Amino acid sequence: MGTQQITAPPCAPSPASGDATPSSGVIHANVRHAAGFTVIGNHLAQHRGLSLTAIGLAAYIQSLPAGARIGIKRLADRFPESESRIAAALRELEAHGYLHRSRVRLADGRVVTRTVSYNQPGATASTAPAPEQRTGRTKPAAPLPAPQPPPRESAAEPHPASSEAPQPPVPQRMPEPRPAPAPEPRPAPVFVPAPTAPRTLPQPLPQPRELTPELHRAAAAILADLRRHEPQLVLSEHDIQALIPGVATWLERDAHPDTIRHVLSNDLPVPLKHPAKLLRHRITTLLPPPLPGAEDLAPTRPGVIVIPLQNCDRCDRAFRSRHPGHCRDCRSDLTTAA
Q1: What share of the chain is helix, strand, coil (3-state, %, to 5)?
Q2: Phi–psi pair at 254, nearest 5 degrees
């Protein structure tokens, strides 16, 4: 009756946490790196707000040496992702504080993009790991100087007449090392916008002196017929109605329809994105001047002023005058009658 009876079997001992192999999930087969590695925090590798592309891009940027170029086109040549996907990943890293890009102007006037990568957003520069720790090389700590024993003072021999014992020497206290001064914060780069050239307004479309129905019909036919010669010049009805005054001005200045068609459809760019804008530019900038009259083409001698001929309003006789009116005889008759 005094012996204790154990009715339940003892529980099996739980395996050690370090030696246990999980039955499911990931199994790590780790090998210690001796050189050529980069330390990345779990706050980046397991970030819930970043995409896989952004996390991988941040890890790649942190592994690069200082001064490496990480432009969007250079990253697109290095990785299979497109430029738009890489640009979106860079914006994600900027939004979460892992990256900061700014435009700065150099001393020679060039404007460049300066990129700063943060391996731990929100931490100061003093708490960041040293470069030797990031690349796998541990910087040996400087050995502390061994404390020197205090100099021994020569103890004065006791006077034979004195019965007091000599006092022991007082140890000297070593001065405490002063903390290194904190580095002065560098001023943030100032963004200087690049000067932009003033935007020039497009020239207005030429307008005819009088848009007659004949000119309107001929100009519309020329514009609609351009697609027969160049399939790229397909215009909508709205574009044709907007360009009719310009083509009518060409016809009013005695330009042949074949000449207009050749000027508008010759040497087109490939690919042609905006045919109406191209035709408007050519109609405006290549507009020919009006044809000169017979008086403009007549040769004149230097120093001789040629007075044009006029027809008399009364007798229809030709006479020379700068202004139309009556000839000399008709003017004298009118004066006599008055």
Answers
A1: 30, 5, 60
A2: 65, 35
Angle 213-224/257-265 helices, nearest 10 degrees?
A: 40
Domain ranges of the chain: 42-134, 213-285, 300-337
- Residue 244 has a CB neighbour count (10 Å cut-off) of 21
Strand-pair partners of 99? 117
Q: Rg of the Cα trace of the chain?
A: 48
* Residue 57 one-letter amino acid: L
Distance CA 247, CA 218 (A): 9
As a CATH number, domain 42-134 is 1.10.10
pLDDT tens profile 130-186: 444 444 444 444 444 444 554 554 444 444 444 455 566 666 677 777 777 777 777
> What CA–CA distance (Å, rounded) separates 91 from 97?
10
Paired tokens of 54: 């952004």
Is the Cβ–Cβ distance between 187 and 228 less than 8 Å? no
